[in-house]
Amino acid sequence: MTSESEQLPAAVRRERILSRVSENGFVRVADLSREFGVSEVTVRSDLDAIERESPIDRVHGGAVLRGSPSRREEPFESALTTAALDKRLIGTAAARLVQSGMSVILDVGTTPAAVAAALLARDDLDDLVVVTSSLTTALALEPAIPRFTVVVTGGTLRPLQHSLVAPFATKVLDELRVDVAFIGGTGVHPQGGVTNVNLAETEVKRAMLLAADRAVVVADASKLGRIDLGRIGRLDEFRTLVTAGADAATQESFARAGVEVISV
Question: Most exposed: 8, 70, 212, 219, by fewest CB within 10 Å?
Answer without folding.
Answer: 70
